[in-house]
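job 3f2a | input accepted
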Amino acid sequence: MKKNVMVVDDSALMRRVICDIIATDSNFEVGATCKNGQEALEKLRKEKYDGVLLDVNMPVMDGLQLLEELQKEHIQTTIIMVSTLTTKDADVTIRAMELGATDFVTKPENISEARGKDFADNLLGIINAVISSGNFKRAFSTPKPVSMPKFTRADKPRVATGSKLIALASSTGGPKSLQSVIPYLPENMDAPMILVQHMPAGFTASMAARLDELSKVHVKEAQDGDVLQKGWVYIAPGGRHMRVISTGGAHKIKLSDEPAIGGLRPCADVMYESLQSCGYGNVTCVVLTGMGADGTKGITGLKASGQRIYTIAQDKESCVVYGMPKAIAEAGVADEVVSLEKVADSIIRNVGVK
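job 3f2a | predicted structure (354 res):
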């Protein structure tokens, strides 16, 4: 049976384009189209849909307001935002994922791009991964409060000696999932964290700012030349690869505009591969929800290099899309598989506190 999808966009032309794209996939059909959030809300009160493609900026009721109403009325469904690339839209999109949107697709700037293969492939790829996963309830629900243990210097971490680094990778479902990890890290975390989240340029700055507001650790969008400091999280800017280099006795961020790898920039494999020669004695790798297998090649190479590596993978049950962590587990390089709610605890048990 085909999955039933609702398309919500105030542009009749964009609705038509999206419907045409969905019609090319035999797994899905468009069950309803709406020109604003109010129309969508009325339909969602009466009918079940397997997924909703939701525009951000609309008259009467916008995408954010619709998500707020759905939460108030406890109506759960898989929401994928379709967002443009302005800074304002990036802030709204990050907020939308807090309210239950699973992921987002970047809306093309013009209709010719919207009718192009890249947009169609991206849209269908995310629809297939997210709607087919059946884990929309985890994306829609508010993260459960986690009681973090009180770590002290007397507690012995798994990795007790040498310079330490945490390297985290996530993709589809990641922006919301990160809110169940980063805010639960203590400010005296005894390592810096570098983080690759697959997002386009313009969105990672908003995500970093929001995580910084919610967290005890400092969170920022990485800049070229940043010196890594314990208790800080550095997020690779959308559209740029991120490496760590050792220079002048310090570990620094090196950004580059090299071509995308497998359609990804930033690419987690690039980040992990750079750690083979950066001089860190102990690296804790963390892989969360996401499509594909980005990170597996890089972590496998790290393991083979002889460095002290400990890899934490998110479990299937708590993933929005069980792709990247699955690839890590199947490659045999996961030292530990945990639920999303236990990732922060596992990280700190590995690196300790200052």
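job 3f2a | The chain has 13 helices and 14 strands.
job 3f2a | closed
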